[in-house]
């Protein structure tokens, strides 16, 4: 199965009438930034997003819309909070409180919540035992990203860590993931599966792990042209973190927005 096929099977093209995502499936992604308006301008110009405010329980917060469908969230960090500026994927759960307790029991940390976000759902932000940040989302009215894998929408999520064998047991025990290993003597990579379907991946990069970020979840956003998108990022005040490369899944460029939030734009290989 290609990453494109996996993405299509893991997500929804349109969330209307759909039920909550299967537990463990990445269902939402959000960014906490210092400058909410400037951040909206950047991503609006890059991805064509429009924005809708709320829920107010999360403080200054907006939901990004692509063709009228919710795809991501952007919130404003409280003044004085020195948290890393990063895109955070949220993994679906039927019970945020029970999953948060499982996170603690399995060696992780719960940094925020669980808290109720109005009538949208219940959420928490957690860290795995290596320090990688992710969210938990228990859906009520808000089911998550309504568009997946189309230009301007999230396409894939990957945990970048030192070695997969050290952290996979945590995710298996908390979320029930099974692994689909990619057999390679020099490549530490596996896919995380829910009900036999790949929904995310895990990449052990050893000493290539960035010292400044440490283990982290990388969000991939689909674009029509990865090179053009990277050029646009630079025009809008961001920068290229890793120049364009091609692999079996498509053409990708890792970039950062003006506040330093790192993400990857990908033009999927639809044929592969």
TrEMBL record:
Q: Which residue ranges are recorded for the region named Disordered?
A: 1-22
What is the annotated signal peptide range for this record?
none
Tell me which CDD domains the record gives: SgaA_N_like
Q: Where is the VOC domain?
A: 25-139, 153-268
Q: What Pfam families does this protein map onto?
A: Glyoxalase
For this protein, the record's InterPro entries field holds: Anthracycline_SecMetBiosynth, Glyas_Bleomycin-R_OHBP_Dase, Glyas_Fos-R_dOase_dom, VOC_core
Instruction: Please state what the protein is called.
Output: Bleomycin resistance protein
Question: Which organism is the protein's source?
Answer: Streptomyces alfalfae
């Amino acid at each position: 199965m290609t990453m494109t096929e996996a993405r299509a099977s893991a997500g929804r093209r349109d969330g209307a009438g759909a039920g909550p995502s299967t537990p463990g499936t990445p269902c939402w992604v959000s960014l906490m930034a210092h400058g909410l308006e400037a951040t909206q301008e950047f991503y609006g110009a890059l991805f064509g997003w429009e924005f809708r405010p709320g829920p107010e329980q999360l403080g200054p917060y907006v939901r990004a819309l692509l063709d009228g469908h919710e795809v991501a969230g952007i919130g404003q960090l409280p003044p004085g909070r020195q948290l890393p500026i990063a895109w955070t994927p949220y993994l679906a759960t039927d019970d945020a409180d029970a999953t948060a307790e499982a996170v603690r029991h399995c060696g992780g940390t719960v940094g925020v919540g669980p808290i109720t976000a109005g009538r949208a759902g219940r959420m928490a932000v957690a860290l795995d035992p290596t320090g990688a940040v992710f969210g938990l989302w228990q859906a009520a009215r808000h089911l998550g990203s309504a568009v997946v894998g189309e230009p301007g929408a999230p396409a894939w999520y990957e945990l970048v860590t030192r070695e997969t064998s050290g952290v996979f047991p945590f995710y298996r025990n908390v979320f029930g993931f099974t692994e689909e290993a990619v057999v390679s003597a020099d490549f530490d990579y596996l896919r995380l599966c829910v009900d036999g379907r790949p929904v995310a991946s895990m990449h052990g990069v050893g000493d290539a792990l960035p010292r400044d970020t440490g283990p982290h979840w990388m969000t991939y956003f689909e674009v029509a042209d990865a090179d053009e998108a990277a050029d646009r990022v630079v025009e809008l005040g961001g920068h290229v973190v890793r120049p364009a490369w091609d692999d079996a899944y498509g053409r990708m460029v890792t970039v950062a927005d003006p506040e330093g939030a790192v993400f990857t734009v990908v033009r999927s290989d639809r044929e592969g």
